[in-house]
Amino acid sequence: MAFFLISAAPAFPDDFLVSPPPKSMDKYYAEPGTPSEWVTQMQTLSTAFSSVFVNMEKKRWDQAEKKAALFLKSYEKASQMVPEWEKEFDLKSAAELKESIEAKDIEKIGALSEALGKTCSHCHLKNNSSVWIRYHWPSTDTIKVLDPLEDKEVSYPAYMKKLSDSLQRISVNFEQNDFQQAWQTLEIFKKRLTSLKSVCSKCHVSEWTKSSVSVKDFFVGEDILYSLQKIKKDFATGEPSEKIFRKNIDYINNRSCKMCHLVHQPPAFIQRAWKQKK
Question: Which has the least CB within 10 A, 66, 69, 151, 226?
Fold first, then answer.
């Protein structure tokens, strides 16, 4: 007995855009750090939907009927929570699914479960990304970073510009054989990179306090500082190796800068675009 709990490989529409979610969603994310009523409702209906078919497979039709009733009730409630998305809900199929389970109409149950799965996937494809970006990714506009060189707090974008400039100056000075200046700029970059670790905890609060391996280890961990140390050690010889320098600078660029940007820049850029359109 197989049913479509979710639609297989749904496709994005040609005109797909990541637009801000409706303002009516704001009330479900009003208190940061507390479970969203909207997410809780989605989990309730999703679990009820899956439970229907788990019980059917076990021939527990009485339980399947109870879960179908719970799914319908949860589905109807969810459809009313965000008025702008009401049309995304296939209330007719949800009601018919309950009736089909009561009638043990296997063929119709299969068709209705597939239809509902496609409806859910369609809505998720359209709206999940925008909800995550708006409510689950804090804006960098609220982040301040202490610049260890200037001993003052600066905005996150300003700090990242200073950090990038510090890194670029290492390579520029090295290419011009100004190794003493390259050494000095490496120290500046190291101080700013180390200070950047404090930024992680501004968003990853629970991970910072509960995990033995902190999120800071992903992009500004000891491996990055070790690469800087290897460059510095090679500088100390007086005749630094181009191969050693490039290997370690490339590691920092790819493992720290690039990887962090791949994760964090897309939502930040989208947030900025939404803000500019207001």
Answer: 151
Sign of CA dihedral 216, 217, 218, 223: positive
Is residue 90 within 8 Å of 116, Cβ to Cβ?
yes
Of 216, 194, 195, 196, whose CA–CA distance to 205 is shortest? 216
**CATH value at residue 55:** 1.20.120
Q: How many helices (H) and strands (E) does the chain have?
A: 11, 2
Residues 217 and 130 in one domain: no
How far is the C-alpha of 193 from the C-alpha of 132, rounded, in Å?
Answer: 28
Range of the domain at 130: 23-136
Distance CA 71, CA 101 (A): 12
Domain count, the chain: 2
Q: Which of 152, 186, 153 is nearest to 171 (CA)?
A: 186
Q: Which residue has the tokens 């005109």?
A: 15
What's the CA gap between 61 and 23, in Å, rounded?
41
- Distance CA(56)–CA(34), nearest Å, equals 35
Q: What are phi and psi for residue 154, nearest 5 degrees?
A: -130, 165
Phi first, then psi: what are they for 19, rounded to 5°? -100, 155
Averages of pLDDT over runs of 10 residues in the chain (278 residues) are: 45 69 94 87 96 96 97 98 96 98 96 95 92 90 92 94 96 96 96 89 65 67 93 94 97 94 92 84
Burial class (CB in 10 A: 0-12, 13-18, 19+), 244: middle
133-158 residue pLDDT tens = 999 888 888 899 999 999 999 999 99
Asked whether residue 45 falls in the same domain as residue 77, the answer is: yes
- Paired tokens of 49: 């939907």
Report how far residue 47's alpha carbon sits from residue 109's, in angstroms, rounded to the nearest whole number. 17
